[in-house]
Amino acid sequence: MSIQQISLSVRKMEVSNKEMTFLERIYVWTILKGLWTTIQHLFRRKVTIKYPEEVREMSPIARLQHMLMRDDQGRERCTACGLCALSCPAEAITMKAAERKADEKHLYREEKYAEIYEINMLRCIFCGLCEEACPKEAIYLTTSKKIVKSGYEREEFIYGKDKLVMPLDMAIKNTQTNTVN
Amino acid sequence: MDSAFIIEKSVIIFVVFALTMLMAMYSTWAERKVAAFLQDRVGPNRAGWGGLLQPLADGAKLFTKEEFFPNTPNRFLFILGPAIAMSTALITSAVIPWGDKINVFGRDVLLQATDIDVSILYIFGVLSIGVYGIMIGAWASNNKYSLMSAVRASSQMISYEVAMGLAMISILMMSGSLSLKDITVMQANDGWNIFYQPLAFLIFLICSFAETNRTPFDLAECESELIGGYHTEYSSMKMGFYLFAEYANMFISSTILAIVFLGGYHFPGMAWVNENWGINIGALLGFITLFAKICFFIFFYMWVRWTIPRFRYDQLMHLGWKILIPLAVINIIITGIVMVLFN
Description:
The complex is a heterodimer of chains A (181) and B (343). Chain A is built from six helices and five strands; from the N terminus they run ααβαββαββαα. Chain A has 181 residues and is α+β, with helices and mostly antiparallel strands. Chain A has a domain at 66-180: Alpha-Beta Plaits, CATH 3.30.70.3270. In chain A, the strands form two sheets. In chain A, strands 2-3-5 form a three-stranded antiparallel β-sheet. Chain A has a two-stranded antiparallel ribbon with strand order 1-4. Chain B is built from 13 helices and two strands, in the order αααββαααααααααα. Chain B has helices at 3-38, 54-64, 75-91, 119-140, 144-175, 180-190, 193-196, 198-211, 223-226, 236-261, 270-277, 279-305, 313-342; strands spanning 101-104, 107-110.
């Protein structure tokens, strides 16, 4: 087999320099054929997904929206150690730590907690490294299939604790199912 | 000349002007929509229903853009260029018959700004002035890409005007008149010209593509070679005028094609409608017919634009001088022979 016949891509085409026939040279017939091709596309189904109204279907194993977990007593697990922010390749996470007061023991699990915890969703690449880095199992990517809502302001994409922390009733429900089992 | 006449003509002129502007505006929207649909996309759909407010948004954007002047000694010519392009695109519509007579308050009103008996000559004349808009604007831009584009545009327009005129002559031999109104009436009586003169139609169609600088003959504004072509240095509404003039030209040349070859406002059964339903209904239906024909041609322009690639410059000249002009001459000879033999 000579080198000329090998085609690694299996799509190799021979260049043909054959003379155009008379029909091809007067253009009109070939242009009509081209017009027929394009007019068929006019009635074809459009591939566009009209994004904010329609959303592309996610992979069944996709994990997107972060959640800051609560433990079985409904207390926030995060201790604001900053390892997630450190591990984040997109530098999307910022936080500010605070000390737990005596009357806040039912809110936070350890003495230190995150007063401010923000993820910039425009920067986040959903790699899951924050989840891997977390020593307290406090941050997880969820399988909710919810993608970040579109918006006109940059501020809309900085998710604070109000959007990230697991809802309390969800924590209660989890505890109930766990104790039943 | 009574005042009713002046009012009547003013109304017609105003309506035709508004119609041309509106069509040019919505051609930009239609172009984007057709392009998108032919490429399996959706196209503009955010501004208004189906993107119908998109032309207004574009216009508002163009008006608020920075007014830029290149470092040119010819500031006056720089402004004159788009002005000429725009005005020549608009004044061609003066001689176009939009419909037959209508009867308003007991007056017979002709749906035409003016029925001069050299309509076709007038249109050809104005069309050839149109190239000055491009040439002057590009020259005053003081930019070599603009100048090259203008040289291409003018040589292309001049060479295709010859074939266009020759194709038109065979129609004139049949109608015996230069008035678009007479040509329409003749077609209403004897049948549409496209059936008698298919070759002239083809030549005229190809030439009007070249005259309006549309693909496959848009060498004057091929982005890959000449940046933006003759409007490279223009910004704001001056560029808007150039783009607008192109679409207005497209509308006008579609109209001429519809009138000269597809019978203008004539539709099968027009005589019967005029007799039984009155001439006002007949004129309305005629206007709608003409409009449908125009829209078909505008769609055809866009359809072709998104189908075939651009011609090379030598191919363009070869097609114009060595194919279309001889064909047009042969067509004239054949028309002459047939007319002598059968009349």
